[in-house]
Amino acid sequence: MLRVVKPKTKQARRVLEKRAPKIKENVKKALLLHGTSTSAVVKGVLSDLHHIKKDGGNAVHWTRKNENIRPFEPAGAAPLEFFSKKTDCSLVVFGSHSKKRPNNIVFGRFYDNHVYDFMELGVERYKSVKDHGGARKFSPQVGSKPCFAFIGEAFESDEKCRQFKEMMLDFFRGEEVDRINLAGLDRVFVCVATATKQVLFRHCAIRLMKSGTKVPQIVLVDVGPSLDMVFRRNQTPGEELRKEAMRTVSKAPQKKIKNVSSDMMDGKVGRIYMPKQEVRCRASLCHGRETRLFTGWRDRAEENEGLKKRASRSGCSSSRRGKER
Amino acid sequence: MAAEEEGAGMDSLSGLRMDIGNLLVFDATDPGIEEASTSSDDYDEQCLRKGARAIQALAEKLFNMPSEADKYGRLVILPPPTTKLPREKPLPKPRPPTKWEQFAQSKGIKKRKRSKLDFDEDAGEWRRRYGYKRVADERDIPVIEAKSTDEPGEDPFSNMKKEKKARIEKQEKNRLQNLKHTLKVAGKSALPSTVQLSTMALPITGSAQVPKKLTKDELGEIAGHASTATASVGKFDRKLEGEKPAKHAGKHRKFLPVVGSSKEEKQQSDKILDKVLSRHNQEIVDVNKVSDLIFAFRGLANFSHGVLGFCVGC
Asked: What is this protein's function per UniProt (chain B) (predicted)?
């Protein structure tokens, strides 16, 4: 026997609607958490990433220990899937620190609350946002749309580097936009591959300097966090899962535009609603306050309606709403 | 990835690949940082220099793209992103048509828009079609004219209420039926995001079996047992309204009448005698049981002899 379970409050209903699958998706949310043993570096990296991503409620940072999370084991990833569902986050950053893998950061993506892929990186050198304190003057606006610069041939040839590139883009790109104000172009993530299988991750502010031409001269200021990382394990999605997750709609349904229609003769026709105009009270309507009626009108009004007082304000403004073309 | 990259714009001058929709530049011609021995400060400097060069090329493109004026400055129109990224949730599925929609389509019934207001003849004013203070609200009817078909003793007002309630229940039933159909045909993802279907009785934790629903007969039997489980075997218990007498009243033994004809008694005795005296009478005797009994009696006899002997001896 089945029964319908519905949200009990409007708020819960709105939350569920927000989480529902959509054709044009929400910005991916990230969950940042760490395991039972961590280091100052790992904690710092997590809080810095949270600082970058938190605008618009797009990051959830958990600062308590989390047991039994081992992303690269099938059973060990189950708690992450559960957390992903609970917090509605499809991106996960899991930090840990052990003798075997010191300062370990695992970036993960989820599709339909199930693991899509994982990428493990070891932090070798880390400079936090705080340590870059001097550059605060130029620090980018919160939640601004970032640019990305990937430098190095490895980002095409090496599998792990390719995954890193896609992962970083997915993490930080924010909302998809079709228009952008170039004055607000103020941050860039620079990722450089090295010959020693390292990847250098820099978060920089963009300064647009005068160059005498239409295009300004770009100056980058490192605002942190700066990370030098090495690749460790990774897990890629199966071909089937990848295909499933990459599915798109060829033609998104257009939202219906109300009160606008097209006419053979007139072309585009709009329908507007106007309140019924009462000429007698026009002056008071225009100014939004009670005004004296013109003497001539007042006399006639008093004659007609037998009113002793002036026409009251409420009488004027409560004109019936009429539909006019 | 490599195939996807081909869709991205290629800057012929600098040899950079760009995905302008994502504001992304990729410099594949640059080998990256090669020297392993350079100091960390040198690393930083190289990163910034290479990054600035790439972003300068991106800016070159962006600042020369078509734009439109806005309150806060000029907005550049971006092309759609070319790098394909995975979705976070599956594509929403369309809901299959409900039973009514199927019927309406087969009959060619079109949906039509009705105005929110309707004229109420009795009240002489425009009122809402549905909801509070609606047209011809059943709750506002003060008097109902009697008809010849009316049955005496029935309250037409409560009847009206009952009918309304029944209509609501029917609609709710239809809705559930449609949801079930949706679940069956298109799966969970086709259900509305705010609706979940859950089973009525969940299995007890740890056991996979759903508790079995009792049948009507079983329930009756249990009720019968319960009603007779008193000192008076339910004789002096107050009966509930509409309670039926227990199915098994507790009378299982039958006694023959004490007076009257002895025909029945004779029949019973004959039946037993026939069994004993018949040719196959050994069949009605359990030989094993009998032999056990005989041995048991013998043992008992021996035991009693011994005891007696002991007594005599002393």
From this structure: Involved in ribosomal large subunit assembly.
Q: How far is CA A242 from CA A114, A157, A159, B84, in A?
A: 12, 20, 15, 11
Q: Name the helix (H) or strand (E) containing B218.
A: helix B216-227
- Rounded-to-integer distance, Cα A234 and Cα A107, Å: 9
Q: Mind telling me how many Å the CA of A16 is from chain B's nearest CA?
A: 6
Of B9-18, B229-238, B240-249, highest mean pLDDT: B229-238
Inter-chain residue contact B44 with A1, CB threshold 8 Å = no
pLDDT digits (tens, 9 = 90+) for A302-320: 555 554 444 444 444 444 4
Closest C-alpha among A38, A196, A172 to residue A104: A38
**Structure confidence at residue B226 (pLDDT):** 83
Split at pLDDT 50, 70, 90, the class of A143 is confident
Q: Is the pLDDT of residue B208 over 60?
A: no
Domain ranges of chain B: 2-76, 116-140
Q: How far apart are CA B132 and CA B128, in angstroms?
A: 8
**Parallel, antiparallel, or unpaired for β B9-11 and B16-19?**
antiparallel
A230 vs B: CB within 8 A? no
- Contact status, residue A53 vs residue A172, Cβ threshold 8 Å: yes
Torsion of Cα atoms, B256 then B262 then B266 then B269, to 10°: 40
Can you tell me which residue has the tokens 């939004």? A288
Q: Tokens standing for A287?
A: 């100014």
Q: Quick one: CATH architecture of A27-245?
A: 3-Layer(aba) Sandwich (3.40)
Query: Which residues of A, range 231-250, sit inside 8 Å of B by Cβ?
Result: 237, 242, 244-249
SS3 call for A62: strand
The pair of three-digit structure tokens given for residue A118, joined into one six-digit string: 């994982």
Q: Which long-range contacts (CB under 8 A, 24 or more apart) does B292-297 make?
A: none
- Cα angle, residue A191 at apex, residues A188 and A193 outer, rounded to 5°: 165
| Phi and psi, residue B52, nearest 5° | -60, -40
Express each pLDDT in B130-157 by its tens digit.
988 899 888 888 888 888 888 888 888 9
- Residue A116 with chain B: CB contacts under 8 Å: 86
Enumerate residues 6+ apart whose C-beta is below 8 A from B312.
none
CA distance A208 to A204: 13
Q: Residue A112: left (phi > 0), alpha (psi -120 to 50), or beta?
A: left
Cα B108 to chain centroid distance, Å, stands at 34
Nearest residue, CB atoms, B55 vs list A111, A194, A206: A206
For chain B, say whether A264 makes contact (Cβ under 8 Å). no
Q: Residue A33, SS3?
A: strand
Query: Testing the interface with A: which of B89, B169, B171 to mutate, by most A Cβ within 10 A?
Result: B89
The larger pLDDT score, comparing residue A310 to residue B65, is at B65
pLDDT at B203 over 50: no
What letter would DSSP give residue A103?
S
- Complete edge-to-edge strand list for the sheet that includes strand B9-11: A59-65, A30-34, A91-96, A104-111, A114-127, A217-235, A198-209, A187-193, A147-151, B24-27, B16-19, B9-11
Instruction: Specify the DSSP element, H or E, that contains A193.
Output: strand A187-193
Domain ranges, ordered by start, for chain A: 27-245, 260-323
Greatest alpha-carbon pair distance for chain A in Å reads 99
